[in-house]
Amino acid sequence: MSTAIQIVNNSHHPLPSYATTGASGMDIRAFLEAPMQLEPMQRVLIPTGLFIAIPNNWEAQIRPRSGLAIKQGLTCLNTPGTIDADYRGEIKVILINLSSEVQTIQDGDRIAQIVFQKVEKASWELVQQLENTERGAGGFGHTGKQ
């Protein structure tokens, strides 16, 4: 069963779609008037021309595409980028060039993927002390490399 997501497509590109039957994310495309060059370590906000209405208790996540990352050194910042259910603006993707070469983004390039997830709301329970665990406060590599 799938959840219907309302979408406005102001680009001339096809709607986002799943590349395979087992894919978790739909590819989204750059909507550019002209090719955009990214210098090494440069970051840029790429428009998509897409606007969506996410149902309450859902979110959309913008995630990198593995092929772009390994082949061109391009990835998304703020990953995963969360789109809240009440946001109605254009979906834009923050890309960064982590390679040592200039990379060019063309209109229609698949630049990221969008994944939809249900969201559970949490509430706070103020306590004086937390329950102890085996791990405790250990973090940031406390278990070693091997």
Written description of the protein model:
With 146 residues, this protein is mainly β. The chain has a single domain, classed as Deoxyuridine 5'-Triphosphate Nucleotidohydrolase, Chain A. It is 5% helix and 38% strand. It has one helix and eleven strands, in the order ββββββαβββββ. The chain has one helix at 66-72; strands at 6-9, 17-18, 26-29, 36-38, 43-53, 58-63, 74-76, 81-83, 90-97, 103-105, 110-118. The strands form three sheets. It has a five-stranded antiparallel β-sheet with strand order 2-3-11-6-8, with no helix packed on it. A four-stranded antiparallel β-sheet has the order 1-5-9-7. The longest helix has 7 residues, at 66-72. The radius of gyration is 19 Å and the shape is globular.
| Number of β-strand runs | 11
User: How far apart are the termini?
Assistant: 41 Å
**Overall domain count:** 1
Order of helices and strands: EEEEEEHEEEEE
Q: What is the CATH third-level topology name? A: Deoxyuridine 5'-Triphosphate Nucleotidohydrolase, Chain A
Examine the secondary-structure arrangement and name the CATH architecture: Distorted Sandwich
Uncertain runs with pLDDT below 50, 5 residues or more? Answer: none
Structural class of the helices, strands and pairings? mainly beta
> For the report, how would you describe the main beta sheet?
5 strands, antiparallel
Q: Helical region count? A: 1
> Mean of residue pLDDT?
94
Which CATH C-level class is it? Mainly Beta
The CATH superfamily is identified as Deoxyuridine triphosphatase (dUTPase)
Largest sheet, spatial ordering of strands: 2-3-11-6-8
Helix content bin: under 10%
Radius of gyration: 19 Å
Shape: globular
Strand portion, in percent? Answer: 35-45%
